[in-house]
Design a protein that fits this description.
Radius of gyration of chain B: 20 Å
CATH topology of one domain in chain A: MetI-like fold
Radius of gyration of chain A: 25 Å
Pfam families (chain A): BPD_transp_1
Oligomer: heterodimer
CATH architecture of one domain in chain B: 3-Layer(aba) Sandwich
Shape of chain B: globular
Organism (chain A): Sphaerisporangium melleum
Low-confidence stretches of chain B: 1-11, 269-285
Helix content of chain B: 25-40%
Strand content of chain B: 15-25%
CATH architecture of one domain in chain A: Orthogonal Bundle
Low-confidence stretches of chain A: none
CATH class of one domain in chain B: Alpha Beta
InterPro entries (chain A): MetI-like (IPR000515), MetI-like_sf (IPR035906)
Strand content of chain A: under 5%
Distance between the termini of chain A: 37 Å
Family (chain A): Belongs to the binding-protein-dependent transport system permease family.
Mean pLDDT of chain A: 88
Number of strands of chain B: 9
Subcellular location (chain A): Cell membrane
Helix content of chain A: over 70%
Structural class of chain B: alpha/beta
């Protein structure tokens, strides 16, 4: 009898699980790459057309060919990498502090009801505050220093990260909370084994949004807070404007855009991997 | 309201000690929605009791009270310090853990699992998965399994708690008939092997007759016990056998009477409900 049941079950299980395979890596990469490549070609073509139309003289608005040549020239130059290194160092430090702050604030606010009432809407409010509005205060507090830049980067990114965590805690599926309760998990144990892992997807979106804010704040900061003898991407952009070096300006902008996109893609990939592992990704087929 | 002070009846069933005893348990939601009205009910050690009723009879509320997920408004619930496990209609597995890790977590946080090593827990989880014929699936994630398989994992997780009492809230409600039949056999085997006391909520009359030593019928709004059928058919039973169908028909007739009572009452009853804005559906979930 038991063997019979187990065989029936094994048969059903086998039927249920057949035919679930992922496509190969190459085909997945291609599926994601071709729309992007097409979009880039389209943008370059429109740009070239605008330049050819003679709307602005070439020394103000150079074509993609000139700019890409300038970019290629920069990529072979040590100073460029020094500038990128300084900017990325600031980005990483600022973002790391923002993550820590966001985690602590988010955890406290999501757990403690009075804190939620007091600071919940303030955090959302901070998110809408344009980061550039913080700079006068930052410069007053920290003079023209890297601390001023980091201060604004953290203020830009931390609210999004905290909000991501708070939303994740709020939307923990009630059924999982009940399951945890039945297992005997209470308070901190429930938080550690159920609520925190359950809020991971939302926290990850918070990180992604936080990064976008951090990157914007950082660029604003590097344009406003020029520190002597320290080159950075923002400073190069400012230099290019002062020297009326239009190709250099556009090439630097492309660098800023590409770094932003690449980091965003890293977060996107992490998000996808998480969804796949958890089965949140319910695509048909 | 305080608990009634009258002496509790012994609650013995066929000379067996009760594992769960409810005495005059009431549950009121909000100010006046009476979900359960003085329910008195016992489950003996090793007994399989099915709780049956139309919607709105507070079956799930009753289980939540026994599980300690909610508090009774009046009356006493005595589980004599028994360890209680619970299964829901959804498997409620943690998607961030593998199947094996889900069970290992239950082993780890249950008092009996204190002091065990990770290796011991892993081995125990493998045994439990073997019990539900899923020995090969420990490394999978819950979403990779079918609904029936996930429910078996949930059963294995409940068993991991080494509970004396198993509460089941329509655990097979979302499964197809064939899978459900097989899981009935599985559950019956495990129940006998382990001497569990089971309180099983369902709205499926045949399922109740197939599984229960007793089928307790609840009325709706408010929920009270109206019938307590003893099912003496030999085990193992088949859901489609003549005896099961016959007894189910008797119980279904009684259930229909109960539903009709509400049809006659409906126009009068809908008035105050609509006026207060409290819909009785809150009592079910």
């Amino acid at each position: 009898m038991t063997a019979d049941v187990s065989q029936h079950l094994a048969g059903l299980d086998a039927l249920e699980l057949s035919g679930r395979e992922r496509r190969g890596l190459a085909s997945r990469v291609w599926a994601r790459a071709w729309p992007m490549i097409s979009a880039i070609i389209l943008v370059l073509a429109i740009w070239e057309l605008v330049v050819l139309s003679g709307w602005r003289p070439e020394y103000v608005l150079p074509g993609p060919g000139t700019v890409l040549a300038d970019l290629g020239h920069r990529l072979g130059d040590g100073e460029f990498y020094a500038a990128v290194a300084v900017t990325m160092r600031r980005a990483v430090i600022g973002f790391a502090i923002a993550v820590l702050t966001g985690l602590v604030v988010g955890a406290a606010v999501s757990r403690v009801r009075p804190l939620r009432a007091a600071f919940g809407s303030l955090i959302t409010g901070l998110q809408t505050m344009p980061s550039i509005a913080w700079f006068p205060l930052a410069i007053l507090l920290f003079k023209l220093s890297e601390s001023a830049i980091l201060f604004v980067v953290v203020l830009g990114a931390a609210p999004s990260i905290a909000n991501g965590l708070i939303a994740g805690v709020d939307y923990t599926p009630p059924i999982l909370l009940r399951a945890g309760h039945i297992l005997g998990l209470r308070r901190l144990a429930l938080y550690r084994h159920v609520i925190l892992p359950a809020s991971l997807p939302s926290f990850l979106s918070g990180l992604k949004q936080g990064w976008a804010f951090a990157w914007r704040s950082l660029m604003a900061g590097e344009l406003l807070v020029i520190i002597a003898h320290q080159t950075s991407i923002g400073e190069q952009l400012d230099n290019a404007r002062e020297l009326s070096d239009a190709p250099g300006l556009l090439a630097t902008m492309i660098v800023i855009l590409v770094i932003g996109i690449v980091v965003d893609m890293v977060f996107g990939a992490a998000d996808n991997a998480l969804r796949r592992r958890w089965g949140l990704d319910q695509r048909v087929g | 309201m305080t608990a009634p002070t009258k002496e509790l009846r012994s609650g013995r069933i066929d000379g067996r000690e009760p594992a769960v005893r409810l005495d005059a348990v009431s549950k009121v939601y909000g100010r006046e929605l009476l979900a359960l009205d003085r329910v008195t009910l016992s489950v003996a050690r090793g007994e399989f009791v099915c709780l049956l009723g139309a919607s709105g009879c507070g079956k799930s509320t009753l289980l939540n009270l026994v599980a300690g997920l909610d508090r009774a408004t009046a009356g006493t619930i005595d589980t004599g310090g028994a360890r209680i496990a619970m299964m829901f209609q959804e498997p409620a597995l943690f998607p961030w853990l593998t199947v094996s890790a889900n069970i290992e977590l239950a082993l780890r946080v249950t008092s009996t699992g204190a002091g065990t090593t990770r290796k011991q827990r892993r081995a125990r989880a493998a045994e439990l998965l073997e019990t539900v014929h899923l020995g090969d699936f420990g490394g999978k994630r819950p979403h990779e399994l079918s609904g029936g398989m996930r429910q078996r994992v949930a059963l294995a997780r409940a068993l991991a708690q080494d509970a004396d009492v198993l509460l089941m809230d329509e655990p097979f409600g979302a499964l197809d008939a064939m899978t459900r039949d097989l899981l009935h056999d599985e559950l019956e085997r495990i129940w006998r092997e382990r001497g569990l006391s089971v309180l099983f909520v369902t709205h499926n009359v045949r399922e109740a007759v197939r599984l229960g030593d007793r089928v307790v019928l609840l009325s709706s709004r408010p929920g009270t016990v109206i019938e307590d059928y003893k099912i003496t058919l030999d085990r193992p039973r088949r859901t489609d056998s003549g005896e099961v169908t016959g007894q189910a028909a008797t119980i279904t007739d009684r259930l229909k009477q109960e539903v009709l009572r509400h049809a006659r009452r409906a126009p009068a009853a809908s008035g105050p409900d609509a006026a207060t804005g409290t819909t009785p559906s809150g009592g079910e979930r």
